[in-house]
Design brief:
The protein is an alpha+beta fold and 123 residues long. Helix content is 30%, strand content 24%. The chain has helices at 2-11, 54-61, 86-96, 114-121, and strands at residues 41-48, 67-72, 78-83, 100-101, 104-110.
Length: 123
């Protein structure tokens, strides 16, 4: 019984399949948006063949906790997903890179922060 009780919290982390109307990927439940604006990880995304709305992307990516915001480049099918915790971005990328969301395939990669870009160009 003690072993079963010790495993109980971990079983809550395994989401049921099909719990999100926008994808067939099994996702964790909704998490609150981050109260922090300090970005510790930024994902770059591309949606093809059609753009995916900010509302849909927020619904999907907020399930990994500590989502700060989603920035879609106006008139495009790409943008940025900012997280307050790198672990949240890691989990989202691992589970959703290549997944179909609202009829489009989503490709994810880690984006350079502005500080890293500045350091690379200031030789």
């Amino acid at each position: 019984l003690a072993l079963l009780l010790s495993l109980l919290p971990y079983s809550a982390l395994i989401p049921p399949a099909g719990n999100c109307p926008y994808t067939d990927v099994a996702l964790p439940g909704h998490q609150p948006m981050s109260s922090s604006t300090m970005c510790r990880a930024k994902l770059f995304f591309v949606a093809a063949p059609v753009p995916v709305s900010e509302e849909v992307l927020t619904d999907v990516f907020c399930r990994f906790s500590d989502l700060i915001d989603i920035q879609i480049i106006q008139g495009t099918a790409y943008g940025y997903i900012r997280y307050a915790m790198k672990e949240s971005a890691d989990a989202a990328k691992m589970l959703l890179d290549g997944a179909t969301i609202a009829g489009s395939t989503i490709r994810l990669s880690f984006a350079d922060s502005n500080d890293n870009k500045r350091a690379k160009t200031d030789h």
